Amino acid sequence: MDELETVYNSPEAGPDSVFRWERRSEALPYVGVVVSIIGEDRCLVVLRKRGPSQFLVQPGVDGDVVVTMRGARVAMPRGAVLPRGHGLEALRSVGDVERLQAVSAWRKLPEWRDDPLHERLGDVVEEAIDKAYELVLAGVEGGPAGLRHLGNLTLLHNAVMSGGVDWVRLDQPPQLVAAGAAGAEYLGLPDLAAVIRRIHTDSDPDYEWRLGALYHEYSGPFGDDAGTIRAAVARRIDVEPQEFGLQSDTITRSRTPPAWRSATARAGHMEPAPTFSNSTRPGSHS
Length: 286
What we know:
Distance between the termini: 24 Å
Number of strands: 11
């Protein structure tokens, strides 16, 4: 067993450990390989170069899967969540990194995921909200039920937050309000749904102030816009991820990562020898 394999498979290189290799040369283009460990036996392999970065993927594996990395729940391409051994193979192949690029299947990272240490990975809930909103705005028929309900509620929420309850009542169609109420019911927020339904029916002269206050109370606490809605989305995704366009299998990591220590390994077949650094904790740099 070589030094790289020893470090890669050591108990210290557990969940959330990150291995990095970089080629910095005036004569050759910059390229880097980043391997992030997920759980006990899965990993992500990211190819870093000038321009968009890419995931190493298993061809023919479609859809997204929810993973937990550094305490954040994120949606990743399902084909990019690989057996842990694939990461070791990739690190061993950097001596001929151009061949690694040529013989492997890669998928471009969306801009919000383009970060070698996965420090800015979009939260799965935020991505679901973005997808849902875009689906409804595009006027596309069908789509996962969860995304459609969430998109309708997001559309209504944005209208209330930008123009107030009175503007929604006077200038927005009843269908918008009905769809938003149905979205709140779907997410398990009956109090919010009841408030939304009253926007077009409440006869109290002070309805605007009163319903506005209730809407803010039930949609999210002060200082946390839509916080209650986001929490409801997270609970629903836990139960029915496929209704949000996600795979039903969920990969998680240990809640309490072990104490790490820095480790390096050198590969003598490349000149200058590449250095693999194992980031020992979230946000650390060797």
